[in-house]
Amino acid sequence: MINPKVGIIMGSDSDLPIMGAAAEILQKLEIPFETTIVSAHRTPDRLYDYSNKAIDRGIEVIIAGAGGAAHLPGMVASITTLPVIGVPIKTKSLGGVDSLYSIVQMPPGVPVAAVAINGGKNAGILAAQILSIKYPEISKRLRTYKDNLKDMVLEKAAKLEAIGHQKYLLEMEE
After folding, report:
1. Fewer CB atoms inside 10 Å of the end CB: C or N, the chain?
2. With contact defined as beta carbons under 8 Å apart, do 86 and 113 qualify?
3. What is the CATH number of the domain that holds 72?
4. Can you give the pLDDT at residue 8?
5. 147 and 130 in one domain?
6. Residue 13 phi/psi, 5° resolution?
7. What average pLDDT score do residues 83-89 get?
C-alpha cells in the first residue's frame, strides 16, 4: 500500500481473521494501511525494527493484535511514541481474557489503548478517529459511516415497532 498511515501487525497468521476486520474498515474509510506479522517472542529483532522505523515510514497509528501472553502491543508501545491500539485475540484456554489483561495492564508511561476481545473492527475505527483529528477528509468519511450506523438502527427500530417482535424474530431467522 502506498504511504500507509496505519500499521496492522499480528503475532501470527492465525490472528488474520480478526485483524482483517481492522483492514476492512480502514479500506472502507479509504485510509491507507499495511499488514504484516511481527511476533514479540519469535522475532524480537523484527519487532524492534518495525516499531523503531514506523514513524519514519509515515505510520501514524499502530494496531497490534495478540493472544495469550499478548506482549506485542505493549512491546511496540515501549519502543515507539505512536499511539498503539491493542486487539486481544480470543484464546482456547481462557477465552481471550488472558490477552485482554496482558494488554490493559501496562506500566505507567507505556500506554496501550485496548478494544474488546476480537475487536479488530473497533480497532480500525479507533485508528480512524485518531487520524481524523489531523485529516478532515477522514473525519468526513467517519461521520458518514457513523450516520449510516444510526440510520440502520432507526430503520430496524421502525420495522420492529411496525410489525412486532414475533414477526421480526421470524424474519430474522429466514
Report:
1. C
2. yes
3. 3.40.50.1970
4. 98
5. no
6. -65, -15
7. 98
CA 105 to chain centre: 18
User: What's the number of domains the chain is made of?
Assistant: 2
Determine, yes or no, domain membership for 94.
Answer: yes
Q: pTM value? A: 0.94
Tell me the residue range of the domain where 85 lies. Answer: 6-134
Whether the per-residue pLDDT at 1 is higher than 80: the answer is no
Strand partners, 85: 63, 113
**Residue type, position 157, single letter:** A
Binding residues for substrate: 12, 15, 42
Contacts of the segment 157-160: beta carbons below 8 A, 24+ positions apart: none
| Average pLDDT in the chain | 96
- Answer yes or no: do 95 and 167 share one domain: no
Per the annotation, where are the binding residues?
A: 12, 15, 42
Decide: helix, strand or coil at residue 33. Answer: strand
Task: Give pLDDT, residue 69.
Answer: 84
Sequence-separated (6 or more) residues with CB below 8 Å from residue 125: 25, 142, 145
Instruction: Give the span between the Cα atoms of 103 and 111, in whole angstroms.
Output: 9
Taking residues 118-125, report their average pLDDT.
Answer: 98
User: What is the rounded distance in angstroms from the CA atom of residue 35 to the CA atom of residue 1?
Assistant: 9
